[in-house]
Amino acid sequence: LNLAGYQKGEAPAGEKPTPLEAVTTYNNFYEFGTDKDEPARNAPGRLKVRPWEVVVEGECAKPGRLALDDIVKPHRLEERIYRMRCVEGWSMVIPWLGVPLGAVLARFEPTLKAKYVHFTTLADPEQMPGIRSRVLDWPYVEGLRLDEAMHPLTLLAVGLYGAELPAQNGAPLRLVVPWKYGFKSIKSIVAIRFTETQPRSSWMKANPREYGFYSNVNPAVDHPRWSQATERRIGEFRRRDTLMFNGYGDQVAGLYAGMDLKANF
Amino acid sequence: MKAPFKPLVFALGLLPVAWLAGRFWLDDLGVNPIETVNRFLGDWALRFLLIALAVTPVRQWTHWAPLARLRRMLGLYAFFYVCLHMASYIGLDLFFDWQTLWKDVLKRRYITLGMICFVLLVPLAATSTDAMVRWMGGKRWRMLHKLVYPAGCLGVVHFWMMVKADIREPLIYALVLAVLLGWRAVKAFRQNPAGVILGR
């Protein structure tokens, strides 16, 4: 994958990117273990990122099986420096490298029946030691409404800090949806499916009372176990207030006009 | 086996704090140090609670009477780590935001249970001196100190409910607790079956 010549990004006003060391050693990637430091210890060297193929299927005119290069190459790589808010109450600022998901999906020509996009993470017990424990229903799956997936902020990331994604961060291809809690940004994607019905994500299956389909960052709607009103930015001591839609409300609030966000959490 | 073993256990009980202080000194508390400290102290609070609850069964299995002299110290260590765990939650995590603390206690069930666990342990720590035992009388003192059983259960449930998906670790604590309390239940039943059933 040629990352040279990407379009430089700008950090959100007043934000400084979280150090690479923190971004790559404090991860939730349960396929490699449930402790924060396990992905960094278990994923590099184990996760085989080449060759990598993604199956595209479902309600679209041009389904297929694409190599990583074929997904990314037709698009200009962009750096996007986004806030990342974990549902557990911590956050980072991360300079991702990727292509807008919407432009990629448009190439497969979703049909009128396509209302949602369903994503699947690799689930290979040979490469992923965490799969042996049934803490979640593998493979990990996530989903977006089609208009959320097509939104210009939604990124299909291949890199971080100007280099290819480290294994523990979801190499070689992951989603980044900055106004939603981190677990929506599914890692190591092997399948993309256009569907008519709402996908049921792994976390919804694990605990439907605590995890909803939308999972938009929302300080007014608490997770039963963590207050979502505040967050700890990694590297800072005091908690800071969590922003509605993680601070991207100007751009994404329109997607949810007229919706009760307490019911559609 | 007399004189030195109490000071030795006292020193061992301080090892977790020393370990934490060392990692703080070396700046080795990880990417989210407040979470690391809080989890570490919570883990040790629960471990000491279980260790204290193990004293009587182990003493009776091994017929090694001097163990009884460690029970108070280990119980107080459990309380000590519970206090440090609370202090790190209130002082470091919430930075003395009492309003949020109050909301957390009311709304988040695992925090409610953790807080009840702490409240149950306060009178036990307060009545741990010889003078208090004499003042209360052995029977009433033993009744009061049965509160350690619900406190142990609450501690384990508090941990269990905090975990997102991987329950293997709290499961281990729950099994140890089940053995320690189950042993007492069986013993009480054998000595006085009617008393157990009728609650006498």
From TrEMBL, chain B:
PANTHER family, per the entry: PROTEIN-METHIONINE-SULFOXIDE REDUCTASE HEME-BINDING SUBUNIT MSRQ
Subunit composition and interactions: Heterodimer of a catalytic subunit (MsrP) and a heme-binding subunit (MsrQ).
Organism: Magnetospirillum moscoviense
Keywords, sorted A to Z: Cell membrane, Electron transport, Flavoprotein, FMN, Heme, Iron, Membrane, Metal-binding, Transmembrane, Transmembrane helix, Transport
BP-aspect Gene Ontology terms: protein repair
Limits of the Ferric oxidoreductase domain: 42-155
Cofactors demanded by this protein: heme b; FMN
Localization annotation: Cell membrane; Membrane
Pfam families hit by this protein: Ferric_reduct
Main subcellular location: membrane
Organism lineage: Bacteria, Pseudomonadati, Pseudomonadota, Alphaproteobacteria, Rhodospirillales
GO molecular function, one term: electron transfer activity
GO CC, alphabetical: plasma membrane
Transmembrane segments: 44-62, 74-96, 108-126, 147-165, 171-190
Keyword Ribonucleoprotein: no
Protein name per its UniProtKB record: Protein-methionine-sulfoxide reductase heme-binding subunit MsrQ
